[in-house]
Amino acid sequence: MITLLFALLAAPAAAAPSLNADVETQVQDLLSRMTMDEKLGQLQQLDGLADGTARPEQAELARKGLLGSVLNVRGAANVNALQREAVEHSRLKIPILFGFDVIHGYRTVFPIPLALASSWDPALVKDAARTAAVEAEAAGVRWTFSPMVDIARDPRWGRVAEGAGEDPYLGSVMARAWVRGYQGGDPSQPGRVAACAKHWVGYGAAEGGRDYNTTEISERTLREIYFPPFKAAVDAGVLTFMSAFNDLDGEPASANAFTLTQVLRGEWKFPGFVVSDYKAVDELISHGVAADGADAARLALTSGVDMEMVSRDYASNLPALIQAGKVPASAVDEAVRRVLRVKFLLGLFDRPYADQSRESIALFSAENRAAARRAAARSLVLLKNDGNVLPFSKALKSVAVIGPLADDRAATLGSWTGDGRAADARTVLDGVRAALPRAAVVVSTGGAIGALSDLDISSAAAAARAADAVVLVLGEMADMTGEASGRSTLDLPGRQLELARAALSAGKPTAVVLLGGRPLALGALLNAAPAVLEAWQPGTQGGDAVADALFGDANPGGKLTMTFPRSVGQIPIYYNHKNGGRPASDKYYSSKYIDGPWTPQFPFGWGLSYTTFTVSGLAVDPVSISAGGRSDVRVYVANDGARAGDEVVQLYLRRRTADVTRPVAELKGFRRVSLKPGEDARVDFTLGPKELGFLDRDMKFAVEPGDYDITVGTSSVGGLSARLTVAP
Ligand code: NOJ
Q1: Which pTM value belongs to this model?
Q2: How confident is the model over 58-75, as pLDDT tens digits?
Q3: What is the Cα–Cα distance from 380 to 556, expressed in whole angstroms?
């Protein structure tokens, strides 16, 4: 028997970047010698060119000490060339901070963040971030605009691909893992980069799932659902935040003194700096809260945005605004202080240049590719496997690989591919060929998703008839998720369902591999196909990882971190909803639909395996505690199938009665366990004030006396239950 002790309380948080006296003295000294223009230069971030080089104007600005940061300039030689202008030619020699969107890998592309979250394996996420940091830093990038820790309850929103899904607890665990993986204990060390928690805040609640759209979120929901992953990032020492594009309850997130100053600096004591999202300062004009650039600069700076990305309202307007007494000079000083502090903490003054000799060794190494393959395999979620169609035998003589995404390298990588190259991606077709070198692989990819013809569909059926087994690779192309890629339907795009039905009509053992960046409404496909494997956008080595699972070298053990709806009309649909006065049921006057089920297609936490598990022996000790007390929860999980595999044991709490309504379930602990056939393990959780408390009617965090239902199981539905009482 393996004993797994798992304390629910996260390991003690790494010290947030506390004010280091030495650093503060250096910052103050530098600040006291800066002109207003030089100060505003530190608050300016400009965009380089797509090929990683700087624009000519930027060298000029750097030389004058008027450029604090750039984004997209990358590659050791490009970075060093621009850095030299600042460090060797500017008056105060303040180094430039080079930022880049390293979202799921720099050159070696890992699975998208939503996939990595589906691994329910924070150590894996931390390692992926660490690998990304090593590669990025070798290429001169010292700051990544990651992690995106926006909670997302609407799969129409294309950016769900970039986050950890719908749950604040899981989102917090993952946020911490990303930050620790990027920054380590000391972000000034080689192989480390500054992280950026984004998009502060509420961006994922965009109305209608349309990117950049308005949001309306109550303070309670902000604090209980949207804030926690950001707070976890602060506790893990994240050095920067990015202010979001969205309008939040009438105050744009990039001009929101409540979130940027009262909460972030006042309540959470965040010492790092906030960068606006791309031109978000200037977009305050479009939001209608600023009349012009001067107004936008005044609002953003005084609300708490320190650095302006790409638009130039600060540099153009702040001198006059200060002169006119409309913005206090101290507000500029404070923003500059925060930016310089991060530059010192990152060790930029001591080590401003990239080591050009290391770059080619660090990027896309065999070790990094192996890590990406393992991460992809651990991110797979098996949605359906009737009759144990999967895994396929490796003795198959012929396999048909069908579908427009089967050999689509870009779709294998997904959006935000850093400096990754589509040509490097291993597709599912590559993976199948490598796994079965002696089998005949019949290929029928057809045209692009939007252009599948009758001939493509009949060819797919013919290919399926000619083979012993069929792998259908369906889903979304790379540009169907990510920024600005909202969808109003969640069906398989184009004629893919028809294609699938044609291939399935051959009656061969068939598995669907789904590639994409969001939950889809899969009902029709699930009715037709016996096995469906959600592979997400699995990254550079994705095709090999998928093949590992298709042929049994890996056993899928991931679980969904976003609910899969049956139809778009069910959105928003998420597991931690309120009960309501008339909860959904078959009764007429209940919270249901008249034209379809209210339940999701797949709930949060769902995922199958090639083996089976049983959870038993739930025990809570003690069953009654005082408000400050703790209780231990113990459970056993056994692999009672015939293959080694992983199960994710999940603990949910429900507070039946409180002075405010509570969700029907809240995840408060989980553990991914690997077990051989016949093996079992004990999993322990601890519940204390952090898990049991919630915001009371006065928005104060407190543990109220009363009863909690504890449910431990393998998804957010079902499981074993016990009761814990907090005595008055
Ligand atoms: C806009 C995106 O919203 C943000 O996530 C990204 O970091 C910036 N552009 C910079 O590319």
Answers
A1: 0.97
A2: 999 999 999 999 999 999
A3: 5
- Distance, in Å, from the CA atom of 18 to the CA atom of 270, rounded to the nearest integer, reads 9
In the block, which residue shows the tokens 């494997």? 533
CA distance 664 to 662: 7
Task: Write the CB contacts of 140 (distance below 8 Å, at least 6 apart in sequence).
Answer: 73, 74, 75, 76, 78, 79, 80, 83, 98, 353, 354, 359
Q: Which residues contact 367 (CB under 8 A, 6 or more apart)?
A: none
Query: How would you write 201-234 as a 3-class SS string?
Result: CCHHHCHHHCCCCCECCCHHHHHHHHCHHHHHHH
pLDDT tens digits, one per residue of 568-580: 999 999 999 999 9
What residues pair up with 308 in beta bridges, in sequence order?
A: 44
6 has a pLDDT exceeding 50: no
**C-alpha dihedral, 208 to 214 to 219 to 222, nearest 10°:** 60
Which residues lie with the beta carbon below 6 Å from any ligand 1 atom? 71, 101, 145, 198, 277-278, 483
Q: In what order do the strands lie in the sheet with 645-655?
A: 624-625, 720-726, 706-713, 645-655, 666-675
CA 265 / ligand 1 centre spacing (Å): 23
Domains of the chain listed by start with CATH number: 240-267+276-345 (no CATH), 370-560 (3.40.50.1700), 613-726 (2.60.40.10)
Element holding 616 (H helix, E strand):
strand 613-621
CA atoms within 13 A on the CB side of 57: 6
Nearest residue (CA) to ligand 1, atom 7: 145
Helix axes 542-550, 366-379, angle to 10 degrees: 50
CA of 656 to the centre of ligand 1 (A): 41
Q: Ligand 1 atom 10: the closest Cα is on which residue?
A: 278
> Within a 10 A sphere around the Cβ of 322, how many other Cβ atoms?
18
pLDDT higher than 70, residue 395: yes
Contacts of 77 (CB under 8 A, 6+ apart): 356
Q: For residue 572, report the distance from its CA to the centre of ligand 1, in Å.
A: 25
What are the backbone angles phi and psi of residue 475, rounded to the nearest 5°? Answer: 140, -135
> Can 277 be counted among the known catalytic residues?
yes
Residue closest via CA to ligand 1's atom 3 equals 277
DSSP structural state of residue 160:
G
What is the residue type of 32? S
Collapse the DSSP code of 91 into the 3-class scheme (helix H, G, I; strand E, B; otherwise coil) and give the result.
coil
How do 720-726 and 624-625 pair as beta strands?
parallel
Tell me which of 145, 149, 241, 279 to substitute to probe ligand 1's pocket, judged by most ligand atoms within 8 Å of the beta carbon.
Answer: 145
